[in-house]
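User: Second chain of the day. Same drill as before.
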Amino acid sequence: VLGTVLFIMVAFNIGPEIITSSATGGTMYSLMITLTVWHFLSFYLFSFLMDFGAMDFVGTLIKKIMRPLFTLPGNSAIDCMASWVGNGPFGVIITKLQYKEGYYTKRESAVVASCFSIVSISFCLIVAKTLNLVNDFVPYYLSITVTTLLCAIILPRIWPLNKIADTYNPDAPVRYDFPEKGSLWKQAITCGAQKAGEADFKHIMQRSSQTAIDFFLTVFPVMMASGTVLLIISEYTPVVSILSAPIKGLLELLTVPEAEKAAPAMLIGFVDMFLPAVVGSTIESEFTRFIIGSVSIGQLIYMTETGAIILKNRDIFDLPLWKLAVIFIFRSVIALPVALITAF
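Assistant: Same format as last time:
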C-alpha cells in the first residue's frame, strides 16, 4: 500500500519534496519505469534458459566444478550468466523459480541469490563512467570479478548461509539427479534433451504471465516503498554519517585519501548500488574513487532491487533483513582489501 501511494505521489508530483525529490522518490520512480520494460520481456524470455534444456545441459557439463568450488549444482552458472548479461534481480527471480521446480535446496537458493546474482557488465560501465574511471575499466572490472569469486567461494561455507536448511521444495520433484552413463558431453545432451522434451508451451506462458503479474503487483511496490524510505533516511538524516564513523577510521588507518567523504559511500550501497557512485563522484582522488566503485559493486546486496526481492520471498531464501545486513558486511570486508590491492 505504501509503495503504491509513493509511486502515485512521485508520478504526479504530489506532496512534499522530501518524497518527490529526484534524490529520493524520483530515483525509485525512474528505476521502476526502466525495470518494467526489462522485466516484462525477461519473464517470457527466461523460458529459453529454464524450459528448453539450457540449464540442464550446462549444469551437467560443469557439475564437477560448481559443487566442490561453490557448494552448488552446475545449473547455478546459468543464474550467474543471466545476471551478467541482464541484471541481478533477474537472477534472483530465476533462482526462486528453480527452487520451486526442485533444482535447488533452500540453502542453495540463498547462496545463489546472495552470491551469484551479480551486477551486469553494462551497469558496471555506468558506475565507472559516473566515477570517471572509464580509462581504468579493465583493472576496475578485474577487481570486481576477483571479489565476486572470493565471496562465492567463502560465504557459502560460513554463517549465516551454511546454517540454512539444505532441503528441497516439498511440493516439487527433486531434479538434482543427472544421468551418469556415457561421457560428460553425452550426459549433458541427454539431460538437456529430456528437459526440452518436457516443455509445455501453455504451461510456460501461464507461469510466465503469473510470475510477471506477481512481480509487478507485489515486488515492485515493496521495492518502491523500501527504496524511497531508505533514500530519505540516507539523504535527510545523519544516520549514514553516524554509522559510517568506524569505516572512516579504518580508511584513515589504511591511508585512503578523503576518507571522511568515502566512508558514507561504503555504507550507503546497502540502500542502492548506484548511490556510492553518486556520492563518490565529487571526490578528487582517483585512488579513492576506484576503491568506492569496486567495493560498491562487490557488496551486491542492495535494498532497492535485489534485497527487496529476496525479502519478498524470504519463505524461499530464508534471508530476513538482518541476515542480508550481515552478508553485506562480509562482502564489504572481502571487497575492500581486493579493491585496495588493485588500486595500489
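The two ends are 48 Å apart (CA to CA).

User: Great, on to the next one.
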